[in-house]
Amino acid sequence: MTRNGSIWQNIDWWTVAMFAALCIFGWLNIYGASYNYDQTSMFDFHNRAGKQFVWMITSVFIGIIVLLIDSKFYDLSAYYLYGFMLLLLLATPLFTHDIKGSYSWIILGPVSFQPAEFAKCITALAVAKFMGRYEYKYRTWRDLVVPAALIGVPMLVIMVWQRETGTALVFSSFMLMFYRQGMSGWVLVVAVLAALFFIIVIRFGFLSAAVIMVVLYAVMVWRTWKRSRTAKWWLTLALFLFLGYAGACNFAFEKILQPHQRTRIEVLLGMKDDPQGAGYNVMQSKIAIGSGGFFGKGYLQGTQTKLHYVPEQDTDFIFCTVGEEWGFVGAACTLLLYLALILRIISLAERQRDMFSRIYAYIVAGVLFFHVTINVGMVLGLLPVIGIPLPFFSYGGSSLWGFTLLLFILLRLDAARVEKL
């Protein structure tokens, strides 16, 4: 019970309904993706649909437990949970083995889970805890040092120590929250330009990019020399910064990224044609989605999925199952449902009465937006394949539990808002 009645009266049931709809539709598509004509019941634990049903039921219990815990617990315990999470992330590679190039899974008998999926939720709490302090205000870039460190440390541990690049990149979505807190839009512009420049360096090579920069530098110096000699020094500094960044991009691509990651980027940028290797997943995925047409082939009638042409079609590439069996209409409705959920979360964020809850809500919206955009983008061949799940849709207990915690903690914080009125 809360100060203003039962906790269940204060829950945002629209958000719960969208969560349930996504989970159920995802479960149906997991069954469709793994279905064959001698398939057992979707409730059979021996197939993936049956296992996902168990994860769904346990997620309901997790959500109920999260809602029953006092909302103050999430604020007071944020740093302790963050410290424990870092220890678990550091310890994970010591107790596991290489799984598809990653050391991020802990295996306990027949069950395996990925601690990095829960790190997103706990990191969000820690960042909201720090930025929700009464005396914290965003004035200059120095005020972002500690929040950026709270985000960056688990991100680097997951990327470098566990070699799980896809999950690590999700932490970059936390930056979207800073714009609501007053960060200049120029930061986003710089980030987009940096990404474009990275593509130019990789696509055309370091020397070509360096020549282009030197030519641009010479032209700009010539045009500004007589009007402002000071501009020459700023342009010179900018030239060296760009050259340094180009060298860093080239080094990161050649030395830090794994061979399969480099190949995926090269295929996306048209530098390499590998239809039987790195480009196979995306090619088959686009064929599956395209074959669905406007209304789809019908539930359990997808030929690409039934013949298992698309690898990972019930995990990272499950959206191709939606496109093939439910068509453009089903895919569009799915994306609209995600959009409605994200907009609802933003609405919840704006009605919060304390900074901790509002910051946490915007992080949740950013994480979901990043996951949906990147997952659908890579399935359609618009973005490189980095291997992140579609929220509440893709098969996997760790993913579903992680997103359930992320969302239901927000629902608990929002319910507590009524107590503070």
What does this structure look like?
By secondary structure, the chain is mainly α. The protein has one domain. Helix content is 67%, strand content 1%. The protein has 17 helices and two strands. A two-stranded antiparallel sheet has the order 1-2. Helix 9 crosses helix 11 and helix 13 crosses helix 15. It starts with 12 loop residues before the first helix and ends with a helix. The mean pLDDT is 86.
Structural features:
421 residues, mainly alpha, two-stranded antiparallel sheet, 17 helices, 2 strands
Order of helices and strands: HHHHEEHHHHHHHHHHHHH
**% residues in beta strands:** under 5%
Helix run count: 17
Largest sheet: 2 strands, antiparallel
Gap between N and C termini: 16 Å
Note poorly predicted spans: none
Shape type: globular
The portion of residues assigned to helices is: 55-70%
Averaged pLDDT: 86
Total separate domains: 1
What is the structural class? mainly alpha
| Alpha-carbon Rg, integer | 23 Å
Number of strands: 2
What is the spatial order of strands in the main beta sheet?
A: 1-2
Secondary structure topology:
Blueprint (H helix, E strand, L loop, with lengths): L12 H22 L13 H21 L3 H5 L1 H14 L14 E3 L2 E3 L1 H17 L13 H17 L3 H6 L4 H6 L5 H19 L1 H19 L4 H28 L2 H10 L11 H12 L11 H4 L12 H32 L4 H25 L17 H23 L2
Antiparallel strand pairs: 1-2
Describe the structure concisely.
Helix content is 67%, strand content 1%.
